[in-house]
Design goal:
11% helix, 918 residues, seven-stranded mixed sheet, mainly beta
């Protein structure tokens, strides 16, 4: 049965889909809860709709307030599983996601997420008391935030736009250069890439269009790092910040969120700089006036999606991507010495293991709020040879946008905002604008510039004196004050260790899963207030082998023992470095740390104390601090450091909870990075026609390239019928067909939907992954049936129900429907007092008085739902009997074009007459 409904319901459907041809049915748009669905048609939550365009259904969600264009992806989830990434409408309120046939049938517990934050649920107000920032750390001996001796010169260049695969419009080649004045010789180059932000503006209006409409200007996001660039240039580095509006305005359809396109753009600029270094006379004026760049020493700095873009550029520099996916096909004439990733996205969760990195995590990030950039640290463990330092820098009180002055209110040329939206009546205790822990825009930007300079000094200049700012040694850069900046790291001179991801056993605690829907298995339960960057969710509802050790104790002296399958050698290490965290806003969790060797000898190394970070329900504050205990007591006790059997943590506080991420043998220093010849995996996508008969087998296209060696990756296969994921560990070799995922396609002549068979790949050991997502899309090539309408009760006496039957010419494999809007009819017309008042209110929000024709109402729609396998559905309009003698009244509904919201040319009509009963 079909009912009329309120205007905003239909508006959501109209915004969601493209138009259908006259007389052709469109895929089902199911009513929301309480709207009169079929008995076997489960209702969708408020704000959700199903609609269609004649070839596939679309799931539509409309937000009550505009969702700003940002770097984190908006994701639709059902029952905890990722359904997909919807496309936003221009109004910023409406999002639509094409569904395959099976996907349309498994919609339950629908949710909208972005960067670990749920968008479709009312935010609870945090009643926790205000918190104070932690005490400042001791000052480091070298402060990289101090300006250098050089004056600086600033200018821009604009080259011919370029075309990149998958993007229909050309992308700009524009950049701002800041260089030292008077510096001699070749100078290291730092390249900045901004993230995904609005692209065009005109006065107070701002859009994500590309190219910009006439009269509007591009948002100058690339100029937002001038403070960082001037600091680096004063210290002798050449800097360039490139514009990527052309990618931002077109990356909504890219499976990787635009990472490959951004990589291509970065490498196109680097290729120009390599050419200018060889032939200075060909360079733009601002480049000719700068010192010649040393392309053997390049630092890439990326903000948000720009972070994922420069990570991909570092990978593509070491191992080229498939040519058909890449926008750069020339020689590599540069060396990436390191990357800085500021509030980065990591949709692929495949960081480059053998290029050093620093990930800046803003504690009050309101965009990429799960701080998924932590994966650039955790995700490298055991993948490469471990010589590259991978650091995470947690900046308490920093938001996402203020690292870029062009995204900062009061500093930006275009409209800008604080991405951490806060209720002024119920301010967040950590991130509210007046919270003691919240940084001002200038304080935050100064801290960011300082730590970018620290990375440049370590990775480009090789100055190990700044390493303690980045590697968990507990030092601070006074130039970043009053910001509280904490760090931890993996790699560099960390040797063997205790990794929960590997083959280990735990007694006294439990191995917990970073991502798992089961509260009994997951590290943080669903009722946890706040989140952990270490457990940022990927595209699957659970992940194999991504774990931590959960500790819970209720007495002093409770031990937790971690035992690897094979003994661990700590020979040559000076300390044991542990990454652990306790709940936010807690203090004084104490543990004794002990080791036991294979002979049974046990030695206590020392005691550690852990404090939680400032946190609230809206922050990702379950983040590990690095603590170290010296190994010298083990030597004095005669313990064999070359054959350590287990590590033990014994509680020395009365009760509490803690999580161990890992523990490593550590010694100071930054070794030379060894980039090995690892195989590279790229998953592609192919689209095939369903066909009319027979069964054919297709295979997911996967390329494994490289110069030799083998590695291991985990392959996740998503079942489109059930939504469930299976995974397996696969050994890959260059040129091999080791990842073999067959897809069987059975043809038929029944109209249905396209179906995607998706595959995800993640590196485990000795491998790199570029394009992590792909599959086989099966295109339904059968024509849509025609729809006709027949009056069942088209002329009734008042008090009876008008009924029409919509019929399909043949049954199909997908729910189909059509939308009808009330239209003027032959006078006299059916009025607001001729239908039940409750029905009128439920479906339009209107009252009967004052009496007016139904055609005068704004937003009276009827929707027809014909479930898969059926060929008809009835549409009804109830009427009421009154005591007023009146002439026969008429009503008319016209089929609506779902793409335009206008009456469909040649579309169907519903007409009816109501006779007086007196």
């Amino acid at each position: 049965m079909v009912r009329a409904r309120h205007i905003w319901v239909a508006a959501a459907a109209l915004l969601a889909v493209a138009g259908a041809s006259p007389g052709v049915a469109v895929a089902d748009s199911r009513p929301a809860a309480g709207s009169g669905t079929l008995a076997d048609d489960p209702p969708l939550p408020p704000g959700w709709r199903l609609a269609g365009d004649g070839s596939a259904p679309h799931l539509v969600w409309r937000s009550g307030r505009a969702v700003p264009m940002g770097d984190a992806r908006v994701e639709f989830r059902s029952g905890g599983r990722l359904l997909g990434v919807p496309r936003p409408s221009a109004d910023g309120h409406t999002f639509r996601l094409p569904l395959d046939g099976p996907g349309a049938k498994r919609l339950r517990d629908l949710q909208v997420w972005s960067g670990g934050r749920r968008l479709d649920a009312r935010q609870t107000q945090d009643t926790a008391p205000a918190v104070r920032p932690p005490a400042p750390l001791p000052a480091n001996g070298v402060d990289p935030g101090k300006p250098g001796a050089y004056r600086t010169r600033t200018g821009e260049y604009a080259l011919k736009s370029v075309r990149l695969p998958g993007l229909p419009a050309p992308v700009e080649m524009r950049a701002v250069v800041v260089a030292p004045v008077g510096a001699t010789g070749r100078r290291p180059l730092a390249l900045f890439l901004h993230g995904r932000h609005y692209t065009c503006y005109k006065g107070a209006d701002i859009t994500g269009d590309w190219p910009c409409a006439a009269g509007s200007k591009p948002v100058p996001s690339h100029r937002g790092y001038l403070r960082d660039q001037r600091l680096l240039a004063s210290q002798g580095y050449v800097t360039v910040s490139v514009s990527a509006n052309g990618v931002n305005g077109q990356d909504y359809a890219a499976e990787d969120g635009g990472a490959q396109a951004r990589s291509s753009l970065v490498r196109l600029h680097l290729a120009r700089w390599a050419g200018w270094a060889a032939h200075p006379e060909t360079a733009p004026k601002v480049v000719r006036e700068a010192p010649r760049a040393d392309l053997s020493k390049v630092l890439l700095v990326g903000h948000s999606r720009g972070g994922e873009g420069v990570n991909r550029a570092a990978l593509d520099t070491l191992a080229p991507p498939p040519a058909d996916q890449d926008g750069y096909h020339g020689p590599v004439r540069w060396t990436i010495k390191g990357t800085v990733l500021i509030g980065p996205t990591v949709f692929g969760q495949n960081p480059v293991p053998d290029v050093p990195s620093v990930s800046v995590l803003p504690g009050c990030d309101g965009d990429v709020s799960d701080l998924q950039g932590e994966v650039y640290v955790d995700g490298t463990r055991g993948v490469g040879n471990g010589t590259a330092l991978h650091s995470a820098v947690y900046v308490i009180g920093a938001d996402h946008n203020f690292f870029n002055s062009e995204w900062t209110p009061g500093q930006a040329a275009a409209p800008a905002e604080d991405d951490f939206s806060d209720d002024p009546h119920h301010p967040d205790p950590v991130c509210g604008k007046r919270a003691a822990t919240r940084l001002t825009a200038n304080q935050q930007h100064r801290a960011g510039a300082t730590y970018v300079a620290a990375a440049a000094r370590l990775f480009l200049a090789g100055d190990d004196r700044v390493r303690p700012l980045l590697d968990g040694s507990g030092k601070r850069a006074p130039s970043a004050d009053p910001a509280r900046v904490l760090s931890h790291a993996v790699g560099a001179r960390r040797g063997a260790g205790f990794l929960p991801d590997g083959a280990v056993s735990v007694t006294g605690g439990r191995l917990c899963a970073a991502v798992d829907p089961s509260p009994a298995k997951s590290c943080l339960g669903p009722d946890t207030k706040g989140t952990s960057p270490h457990f940022a969710q990927w595209e699957t509802e659970r992940e194999t082998g991504r774990r931590a050790v959960a500790l819970r104790w209720t007495r002093t002296g409770a031990p937790v023992r971690v035992t690897p399958r094979e003994p661990v050698s700590l020979t040559g290490s000076s300390a044991l470095a542990l990454r652990m965290f306790v709940p936010p806003n807690t203090r004084g969790a104490r543990f004794d740390v002990s080791l036991t060797d294979t002979s049974g000898k046990k030695a206590r190394l020392g005691r550690i104390t852990l404090d939680g970070l400032p946190g609230s329900e809206r922050t990702a504050s379950y983040w590990a601090r690095e603590v170290r205990v010296p190994l010298s007591p083990a030597g004095r006790a005669g313990l064999k450091l070359g054959s350590v059997k287990s590590m033990e943590l014994t509680s020395r506080s009365a009760s509490g909870r803690a999580w161990l991420m890992d523990a490593w043998g550590w010694r100071p220093g930054t070794p030379a990075v060894r980039a090995e010849a690892l195989p590279r995996v790229d998953v592609g996508r192919t689209t095939v026609d369903e066909g009319d008969s027979g069964t054919r087998t297709y295979r997911v296209p996967v390329q494994v390239t490289g110069r030799g060696g083998s590695g291991r990756v985990r392959v996740y296969v998503l079942d489109p019928a059930t939504g469930r994921t299976t995974d397996r560990l696969v050994t890959v070799r260059p040129g091999g067909q080791d990842i073999d995922v067959p897809v069987q396609v059975t043809g038929n002549t029944r109209y249905g939907t396209d179906v995607s068979h998706d595959v995800l790949v993640k590196a485990v050991r000795g491998a790199r992954v570029g394009s992590y997502r792909g599959g086989v899309t099966v295109h339904d090539d059968d024509p849509a049936p025609t729809m006709t309408v027949t009056p069942v009760a088209g002329k009734v006496t008042e008090g009876k129900t008008l009924t029409w039957r919509l019929s399909l010419s043949e049954p199909v494999d997908v729910d189909l429907g059509a939308l009808f809007e009330v239209a003027p009819a032959t006078a006299p017309e059916l009025s607001t007092k001729d239908v039940p008042a409750g029905w009128l209110k439920d479906m339009t929000g209107e009252k009967p008085d004052p009496e007016r024709a139904l055609s005068k109402l704004s937003g009276l729609y009827l929707w027809a739902d014909i479930p898969a396998g059926r060929t008809s559905a009835d549409i009804t309009v109830p009427t009421v009997k009154d005591r007023v003698r009146e002439a026969t009244e008429s009503v008319r509904f016209r089929q609506t074009d779902l793409g335009t919201g206008e009456p469909q040319a040649g579309g169907l009509e519903l007409t009816g007459s109501v006779l007086d009963a007196s």
